[in-house]
């Protein structure tokens, strides 16, 4: 099955792709100027990549409770479910943006990025898509080795 990982933001929506190989990779973020255009971008990726399920980063607080941002993400999730009709899974997104930023700095061979580099990565959604890849990878790792979603009533 093909999966689309999503890191929701009001202005930028990070996206990633994963399949039966079990590796999530960042893909171009939805950074269009309107919400409708960003949703169309997501729809195009779903069609182009034959996505069968969505994995959305869910904003838990550090103590595991659900924060105020979760209501906004819940509304977005509801919109995705109505619009695309695909199975949707929530995945803990705590610290993924910080991990993505640290990973990008490591790739560039620097401990700290300049403010201009950070701003450029934010504007293009590159950082958001790297966070989406971390979210999706975490989910895919829970499915290994079968890479099929677990039934709702599954117990360890």
Write structural notes for this entry.
This protein has 156 residues and is an alpha/beta fold. It has one domain: Nucleotidyltransferase, domain 5 (2-Layer Sandwich). 45% of the residues lie in helices and 18% in strands. The chain contains five helices and five strands; from the N terminus they run βββαβαβααα. The protein has helices at residues 35-48, 69-84, 96-107, 115-124, 126-143, and strands at 3-7, 13-18, 25-30, 53-58, 88-92. It has a five-stranded mixed β-sheet with strand order 3-2-1-4-5, with helices on both faces. α3 crosses α5 (126-143). 29% of the residues are buried. The model is unreliable at 97-108 (pLDDT under 50).
What class do helices, strands and sheet pairing give? Answer: alpha/beta
Distance between the termini: 23 Å
Helix-strand pattern: EEEHEHEHHH
- Tell how many strands the DSSP assignment holds: 5
Query: What name is given to the CATH topology?
Result: Nucleotidyltransferase, domain 5
Proportion of helical residues? 40-55%
Q: Beta-strand level of the residues, as a percent range? A: 15-25%
What sort of overall outline do the alpha carbons produce when their principal axes are compared? globular
Report the CATH architecture. Answer: 2-Layer Sandwich
Rg estimate, integer Å? 15 Å
Low-confidence stretches: 97-108
Tell me the strand order in the biggest sheet. 3-2-1-4-5
What's the CATH H-level homologous superfamily?
YqgF/RNase H-like domain
Q: Enumerate how many helices there are, as a single number.
A: 5
């Amino acid at each position: 099955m093909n999966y689309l990982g999503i890191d929701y933001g009001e202005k930028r929506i990070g996206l990633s792709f994963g399949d039966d190989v079990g590796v999530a990779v960042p893909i171009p973020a939805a950074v269009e100027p309107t919400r409708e255009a960003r949703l169309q971008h997501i729809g195009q990726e779903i069609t182009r990549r034959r996505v069968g399920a969505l994995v959305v980063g869910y904003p838990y607080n550090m103590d595991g409770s659900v924060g105020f941002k979760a209501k906004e993400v819940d509304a977005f999730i509801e919109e995705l479910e109505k619009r695309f009709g695909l199975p949707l899974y929530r995945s803990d997104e705590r610290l993924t943006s910080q991990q993505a930023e640290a990973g990008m700095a490591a790739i560039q061979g620097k401990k700290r990025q300049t403010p201009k580099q950070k701003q450029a990565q934010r504007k293009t959604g590159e950082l958001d898509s790297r966070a989406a890849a971390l979210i999706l990878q975490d989910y895919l790792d829970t499915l290994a080795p079968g890479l099929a979603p677990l039934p709702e009533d599954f117990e360890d």
